[in-house]
Design goal:
By secondary structure, the protein is α+β, with helices and mostly antiparallel strands. The protein is built from 11 helices and 17 strands. Strands 9, 10, 11, 12, 13, 14, 15, 16 and 17 form a 9-stranded antiparallel β-sheet that branches. Helix 4 packs across helix 5. The termini are far apart.
């Protein structure tokens, strides 16, 4: 009997689940938000993921429901569970990826290291927090922010006056970090947990630009701490599927949790070409409670570079040919998206023995799409 997985959301993450689904003989179906999205090859339905009836109708044809994003409302998630649908990750776990204040409170209660933070309801609360934390702070909307959206570094509450309303904001210390890291974890419903090596992510304008795998200069202590944090979160929150734990490595050698994503994540795209088992295959294995694949590197180094924006002309054929000709070691992944400033339209991965060479080739291949 063919296993059937339903993915809510038709973006590039759902698109990248299609090849491993085919390899494993899984029937993958996608509920896309609109026609012509990245995962249109597997889009068996188009509809509103915030409407319970629409989602229930889609879910009746699959064995398990999972996600391309974390924006499905809790009422819809709970409705699926009440109807007997297997949902992975489930609503009890997803709430912590959907609400940053809930996430911070939960992680603090677990003893997981996080930046100093507070829930601030008004300007006076925020100004008091800023004054107590060196005169500057990071302010985030509790829900809905991604890729730098919903995040501001401020010196005064006046700089986020337009954000105050009925819902409180999250205020955090401005962490003095030397780099950002990511620990990817996968957990099955039966409880098995597996991890990939910790990686370094390089952000530009709040958007992931590059990932270096494994994190250069990583010590056994760093690997152990990141793995312990990731495992604790996955097990304590009951996550099923892939979990990305974004981390700060501070100048005083602390490791702090920045963000969580309960789905395949940009910092794990390198695994398609650089790991024995990609995050997308592992996510499918996890939500179906299949045995995990190995997560080691297939080469000493892998560098993933996002293709952001793309050519102003909108023509991807010419840069694709140029990148393929100039950098034959590069694995090119395009998402079926039209170019637009700042938009992630694809990524490039190169793996090999020398980090400097691998990084140069990956960056050169990605640059061909913006020349």
């Amino acid at each position: 009997m063919t296993l059937r997985v339903g993915v809510i959301g038709g973006g590039q993450l759902a698109r990248m689940m299609i090849p491993p689904a085919i390899e494993l003989g899984i029937d993958i179906r996608v509920l896309a938000e609109a026609e012509g999205m990245s995962a249109s090859l597997a889009a068996t339905a188009v509809g509103d993921y915030t409407d319970l009836d629409t989602v229930l109708s889609f879910a009746r044809g699959v064995d398990v429901v999972t996600f391309d994003h974390e924006h499905v409302p809790q009422a819809v998630l709970q409705g699926l569970v009440a109807a007997g649908v297997a949902v992975h990750p489930g609503p009890d776990a997803l709430q912590y990826a959907q609400d940053k204040l809930l996430m911070r409170a939960k992680l603090a209660s677990l003893g997981v290291p996080v930046p100093a933070w507070a829930s601030v309801a008004d300007a006076s609360d925020l100004d008091a927090f800023i004054a107590a934390h060196g005169g500057r702070a990071v302010v985030k909307t509790a829900r809905g922010g991604y890729d730098g959206k919903g995040v501001r570094v401020v010196s005064s509450a006046a700089e986020v006056a337009d954000w105050f309303g009925d819902d409180p904001l999250l205020a955090e210390e401005l962490v003095d970090f030397k780099r950002e890291l990511s620990q990817l974890v996968a957990r099955r419903p039966s409880g098995d947990v597996t991890l990939w090596p910790v990686v370094e992510s390089i952000q530009r304008d709040g958007v992931c630009a590059e990932v270096l795998a494994p994190a250069p200069g990583g010590s056994p202590r760093l690997a152990a701490v990141a793995a312990q944090i990731g495992t604790t979160i996955a097990e304590s929150l009951g996550v099923t599927g892939v979990l990305a734990v974004e981390l700060f490595e501070t100048v005083d050698e602390r490791i702090l949790v920045n963000e969580l994503a309960m789905r395949p994540h940009n910092t794990g795209h390198w695994t398609i070409d650089g790991s024995t088992t990609s995050q997308f295959e592992q996510h499918l294995r996890a939500v179906l409670d299949l045995p995990f694949g190995a997560t080691g590197h297939t080469a000493p180094w892998s560098v993933m570079v996002n293709i952001l924006g793309g050519p102003a002309s909108g023509d991807l054929d010419a840069p694709l040919r140029a990148a393929a000709a100039a950098q034959p070691t590069a694995k090119l992944h395009l998402y079926g998206k039209s170019p637009r400033p700042g938009r992630k339209i694809g990524h490039v991965t190169v793996s090999g023995d020398d980090l400097a060479t691998v990084a140069y080739e990956a960056r050169a291949a990605a640059a061909a799409f913006n020349s």
